[in-house]
Amino acid sequence: MRIAICDDSVLDREIIRDFLQMYTAEHAISVTIEEYANGMQLVYDVEDGRFFDVIFLDILMDGLHGMDIARNLRKMDYNGKIVFLTCTADFAVDSYEVEAAGYLLKPHYYEKFCALFERIAERMPHDGYRLLSRGRVVVVPYDEIVYVESCNNTCTLHRAGGAVYTIYKKLSEIEQALTDRRFLRCHQSFLVNMRYIAKADKQFELTTGDVVLIRQRSLREIRQTYLDYTTMEMKP
């Protein structure tokens, strides 16, 4: 989970960061936290393709108003969660405009933070791959990833239903992100979702009709990995 804290108060950023670290440690949630003292820098980073699952955003900051920052984010089609940090509930009505996930009133209390963050965490998808497509962050559920193919330093993700996405990353980077055991790196240029394999011979034939290559020098090992996976899937 990627989280941003945007507040011009160093102390308030530290408090929210400490709360996040305590909560995620208690609930075994992997988290990356980035801090911003300037709202426009946050906007620029999101505009450049950086995605955050949750943004904690102070409303009353020096410079650009927090509500204006939220409006800018939504205009860029940012669809993550926004939580406002404020010492007043005067902007509660305005928060509906930007679909805020909640408010945390200052001074901060850990119990109130936990109650809010628990609601947010429960509603977030935890089994999808995030990618940037046409300026928008798209979350592709693991179940819908058929295979990923690498060619000339870019990758193509093939999604169930026929959609394809170009990803400007190395296949090894995508492999590191797709840690679910259903994904198998079967070739230098292919990463396949084993749930879509219909036949395993000298290559994988998929239920979609596509063919995925198998690294021939590791053919026996790769087919055994697939066999072990299907055996585990059939267990009650």
Keywords:
236 residues, alpha/beta, five-stranded parallel β-sheet, five-stranded antiparallel β-sheet
In words, what does this structure look like?
Helix 4 links the parallel strand 4 (81-86) and strand 5. The model has no long low-confidence stretch (mean pLDDT 88). The two termini are 31 Å apart. Helix 2 packs parallel to helix 3. The protein is built from seven helices and 15 strands. It has 236 residues and is an alpha/beta fold. It has a five-stranded parallel sheet with strand order 2-1-3-4-5. A five-stranded antiparallel sheet has the order 10-9-8-12-11, with helices on one face. Strands 13-14-15 form a three-stranded antiparallel sheet, with no helix packed on it. The chain is elongated, with a radius of gyration of 21 Å. The chain has helices spanning 10-26, 39-47, 66-75, 92-97, 110-122, 171-177, 219-234; strands at 2-6, 32-36, 54-58, 81-86, 102-105, 128-133, 136-141, 145-151, 154-159, 164-167, 183-187, 190-193, 197-200, 203-206, 211-213.
How much helicity do the residues have? 25-40%
Uncertain spans: none
Strand pairing plus helix content: what structural class? alpha/beta
Alpha carbon gyration radius: 21 Å
**Number of helical regions:** 7
Rounded average pLDDT: 88
Number of strands: 15
Strand content: 25-35%
Tell me the distance between the termini. Answer: 31 Å
Report the principal-axis shape: elongated
Main beta-sheet annotation = 5 strands, parallel
User: Major sheet: order of its strands?
Assistant: 2-1-3-4-5
Summarize the helix and strand pattern as letters: EHEHEHEHEHEEEEEHEEEEEH
